[in-house]
Amino acid sequence: MSAEKNSQQSAIELTQHDMTDGNIGLHYEENLLWEKERADHPGVDLPEPQNLALRTGGKPRGDIGLPQVSEPQALRHFVRMSTWNYSIDHGFFPLGSCTMKHNPRLNEKLARLPGFAHIHPMQDESTVQGALAVMHDLQHWLAELTNLPGVCLSPAAGAHGELAGMMTIRRAHEQKGENKKRRIVLTPDSAHGTNPATATTCGYEVRNMPTKENGMLTVAAFKEALYKTDPDGADIAAMMVTNPNTCGLFEKDMVEIADLLHEAGAYFYCDGANFNALVGKVRPGDFGVDVMHINLHKTFSTPHGGGGPGSGPICCTEELAKYMPVPTVIKQGDVYKLETEGDRPETLGRLKGYHGQFGMHVRALSYMLSHGADGLQRVSEDAVLNANYILASLKDDYHAPFAHQGPCMHEALLTDKIQKENGVTTLDIAKALVEHGFHPMTVYFPIHIAGTMLIEPTETESKDSIDRFITVMKDIANGAKAGKADEFHSYPQSTPRKRLDEVKAARQPVLRWR
Ligand SMILES: *Cc1c(COP(=O)(O)O)cnc(C)c1O
User: Fold this and answer.
1) Number of structural domains, the chain?
2) Residue minimizing CA distance to atom 14 of ligand 1
């Protein structure tokens, strides 16, 4: 479909957007393989086996109901469906909070080296010294970048790292005999949902700290929460804070807050998912963090989701390092070794089978070493620059609640406040983006501000692709200003599935094919 034809049917006048480099909707419709099969078209045409004893322990071989389709049919089916799975390798993926950055192929190449790819976790340690050395080096560089010396690589995702970190804190309180009286974990209202969820999973009560006014945690709001039910804060176990926070702002009062928190005997958990904005610039250990997790699949470019498992190492102070999960890799003389509970009796124990996501450790170390210290610093600077370019370009078209306070970090926060006056909401804007060839940004998160759109370009997008996105966002804003709300409600038009009834889909999901 040409850009010209598209604009005739559309509420949005496309200006410079060149469709040759985008896409309109999804191109292939595809039904189920069972719907394709025909009784007279067998999938495989093999002769019945003759004179072969069954080896199924007496059970007769029966039809297991696989669809009978030819090899090309099966191949096309799966290839077509694979094109439905939008990924960072298709195009711009501006999901705020998710850091969807390019996964360098060099990392993949190194992870596929036979010495890394073809080993087994139950192999004798003497035969995998190189692999253990990779883990040891990664621990070292993570400790260096965070200024937190205790590193455990085993957690399998960010949320799993949070669990590991908060269990480490709980273990420390248990060892001091204070776990019974320290029942409360403080989180700002801007916290990622996994923070209160983790605290609750660990048996704590969550106390909220309001940040709405300027998007940041203030010393006043913190003090009020800290001393609310005990004048010394002696019922507080920990504070969980994301820095930069989920509004894309750097929390400036952390040192003062951390000092007060430590004075009260509580620990500072930092959700490190946004570390991409800080690497090489700020070490969280320097602003008072006791333990944090790192999302290797965000900050250190290992694949997300379907592309590969996540990995959420934790880094902690020397004090807390005694308690974190086993195993870490230790070096005794020239020999690398996975520690056991015997090596560190105060550990909270094991949280994950074997070594953690070893393939991700290789990729992350490869990323670090190929960038070097100056390269990693540049990554953070460019990620922040790109987000600020978007914020500055769109802040007159969309409501940008914190833009007047100055620059953002690695993600730009907008809301639908202006468009809503014309009946166009954040959901409509996201669907309009799909219609015009862009994966939407994160919508309605953070949740404490109405109609949010959180945009994270990362350092790996070119100025060209960011400019195209900005142009389409401006076109969408102009379409909304022109009052074409009804058309907005019908987006996306070009996809095989149009606008869904999201409430019905959530309340009455159809999960089975009949
Ligand atoms: C992504 C993210 C998490 C959770 O990480 P997962 O790897 O998805 O479990 C936690 N906190 C913040 C702020 C995040 O962005």
Assistant:
1) 2
2) 273
